[in-house]
Design a protein that fits this description.
Helix content is 22%, strand content 40%. The protein is α+β, with helices and mostly antiparallel strands and 138 residues long. The protein is built from three helices and seven strands; from the N terminus they run H-E-E-E-E-E-E-E-H-H. A six-stranded antiparallel β-barrel has the order 2-3-4-7-6-5. Strand 2 (32-39) and strand 3 form a beta hairpin. Residues 9-22 have low confidence and may be disordered. It has a single domain, classed as Thrombin, subunit H.
Length: 138
């Protein structure tokens, strides 16, 4: 009987699922962005605001639609009092109406350090409490 209960309990237990499958920590922040790009001779240029930013990319609400797969040059004004960041290869990986997400394909060491410092400075305690641990001890 004990074995049967143990087996049932193990089958009833849900597998561990990560709350967020993204690799990098995100911070919800509104930063002004401008972008340009071209795909199949269809130019893309516009402005927008970020919804969230991570070390690997960001989500943008824009005044113009873009096409998934487009490689953009993106300028982002972080609210840190410094000059805007420039990303020369931001790949559009998701589009839904006027919202889209980009992945930063190549990030200079300087931009990486600045972006990481900004993200860690702006992570709220609530966000930390609502998610799994940010690191693993090996």
């Amino acid at each position: 009987m004990a074995k049967a209960l143990t087996g049932q309990a193990m089958r009833a237990r849900k597998p561990h699922v990560l709350k967020d499958s993204r690799y990098a920590e995100r911070v919800a922040v509104n930063c002004r962005v401008t972008y340009t790009g071209e795909i199949s001779s269809q130019p893309h240029a516009g402005e927008g605001l970020t919804k969230d930013v991570s070390l690997t990319g960001c989500k943008i609400i824009s005044n113009r639609q873009v096409t998934r797969g487009t490689l953009l040059t993106l300028t982002m004004a972080l609210p840190d009092g410094q000059s805007p960041l420039s990303f020369f290869s931001a790949h559009v990986v998701w589009v839904a109406g006027a919202e889209f997400s980009v992945r930063f394909m190549h990030l200079s060491q300087e931009n990486r350090k600045r972006l990481q410092a900004f993200i860690w400075k702006n992570i709220s305690q609530g966000a930390i409490d609502d998610q799994w641990a940010r690191f693993r001890i090996a």
